[in-house]
């Protein structure tokens, strides 16, 4: 279902944005707003959840005031920084033209959202077992390494498929082919078939940062639930997280959600997804099945072999060098979840800096 895009269209006009942006140029608040309006027909737009999650201010203490000062400093070189402790908003800062209502780019944080959608499908009985081959649910993937891989190995990024990036950690395949898919000249299934050969490693053997594993999950979710990935996510995770503002998720020519990148939401709503994860890690919300799934997703199951800030991967969630659960994206997009102190930290930015991860870890831990 593609919802109306009037809200952002009016916002773009109000901001005076004149030039339409291609998806790969959507790296600032102004360009994002312009691009989302330009590509409205290619988007699934989330409505606010039926029951919004309120983020009340945290009680003012010496510690929260100190954290607020540090958050303001952090946000000055980003678009946003937000910290929640025990459900209360400790600080919320914006810069560089962003605000609490600005949709921002998730980049590869997107990859964690399909994993949560898979968990909801599993717990709803739509997916019978994570060890089932993907092609059991998505027969159009038969004859590809993605179809032969188990749902679990797709979540683990150990599908055994060829690495289109060529080096095991690029996380992107052929840019021209990906561009064709986003421009609706090639479908997601066609892209998966084009790069569906077996790689150097057997399924389950080695982590390869290949975003097509997430794309295969998009097809699995649609076929298993009867709903495209973004629609299923909106009906399950988004509703339970209490999303507040419109969020946008790109679709391919057949209405499948693009599952590795091209997701836009406010920093507040990224943080709400973090709270959804935290509540299931701590057994405070969700079914026992989903609690078990999220705990497994957050385990350090696979060593990446690189990326010092987040050296381990589970079933769609990163384990950071600090031992906490993270969602990571290019150019400084982060959601961190600290179970011990009940904190969620969220930030969106235009670039990674040498201090991004150390400062984010400090704010999450203190």
From TrEMBL:
Keyword entries, A-Z: Signal
Keyword flag Transmembrane helix: no
Record-linked Pfam families: Beta-lactamase (PF00144)
Cleaved signal peptide residues: 1-20
Chloroplast is among the record's keywords: no
Residue stretches making up the Beta-lactamase-related domain: 80-354
UniProt name for this protein: Beta-lactamase-related domain-containing protein
């Amino acid at each position: 279902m593609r919802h109306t895009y009037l809200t952002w269209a009016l916002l773009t006009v109000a901001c005076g944005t004149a030039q339409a942006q291609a998806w790969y140029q959507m790296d600032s608040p102004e360009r994002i707003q312009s691009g989302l309006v330009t590509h409205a027909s290619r988007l699934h737009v989330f409505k606010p959840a039926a029951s919004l999650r309120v983020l009340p201010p945290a009680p003012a203490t010496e510690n929260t005031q100190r954290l607020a000062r540090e958050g303001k400093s952090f946000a000055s070189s980003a678009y946003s920084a937000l910290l929640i402790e025990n459900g209360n908003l400790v600080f919320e800062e914006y810069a560089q033209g962003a605000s609490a209502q600005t949709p921002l780019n998730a980049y590869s944080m997107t990859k964690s959202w399909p994993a949560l959608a898979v968990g909801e499908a599993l717990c709803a009985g739509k997916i019978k077992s994570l060890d089932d081959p993907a092609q059991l649910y998505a027969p159009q993937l038969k004859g590809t390494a993605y179809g032969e891989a188990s749902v679990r190995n797709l979540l683990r990024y150990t599908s055994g498929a060829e690495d289109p990036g060529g080096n095991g950690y690029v996380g992107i395949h052929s840019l021209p082919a990906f561009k064709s898919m986003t421009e609706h000249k090639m479908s997601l299934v066609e892209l998966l078939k084009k790069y569906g050969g077996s790689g150097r490693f057997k399924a389950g053997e080695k982590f390869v940062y290949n975003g097509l594993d997430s794309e295969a999950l998009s097809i699995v979710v649609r076929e298993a639930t009867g709903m495209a990935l973004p629609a299923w996510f909106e009906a399950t995770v988004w509703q339970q997280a209490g999303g507040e503002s419109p969020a946008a998720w790109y679709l391919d020519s057949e209405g499948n959600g693009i599952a590795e990148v091209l997701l836009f939401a406010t920093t507040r709503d990224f943080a709400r997804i973090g709270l959804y994860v935290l509540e299931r890690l701590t057994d405070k919300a969700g079914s026992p099945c989903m609690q078990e799934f999220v705990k497994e997703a957050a385990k350090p199951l696979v060593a990446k072999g690189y990326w010092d800030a987040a050296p381990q991967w589970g079933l769609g969630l990163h384990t950071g060098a600090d031992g906490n659960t993270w969602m990571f994206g290019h150019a400084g997009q982060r959601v961190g979840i600290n179970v011990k102190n009940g904190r969620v930290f969220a930030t969106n930015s235009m670039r990674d800096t040498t201090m991004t991860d150390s400062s984010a870890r400090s704010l999450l831990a203190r």
